[in-house]
Amino acid sequence: MVIEHVAMYVKDLEKARDFFVRFLDGRSNDGYHNEKTGFKSYFISFEDGARLEIMNKPGISDDKGHPDHFGYAHIAFSVGTKERVDELTEEIRSAGYEVKSGPRTTGDGYYESCIVAIEGNQIELTV
Fold it and tell me: Which CATH class is domain 1-70?
């Protein structure tokens, strides 16, 4: 299994993007904006293949106890196929974990599910 990306919510999306590009040699995509929800994100790619998703949306909290708070959001694991995302999501659900969303195809083209796993931390399963 491969860690596909790590995600974090930030207050100033453009400033965060500029930081990772300017100082850490990241390469940014053109970004994504969901007009309906107000969600915006950039994927920053690094030379070794690591990726960081920086995100912002209305309603994000400063309270670290809130599930949608500024800072770390989730770790995404690539499991290889849509079928494996489906199977593993159901296996995890059957084990008593909360499936927050999915499996689904997101507006920016990812097939994923999001699990509330260890101590409330979110794990995303993707192709």
Answer: alpha beta
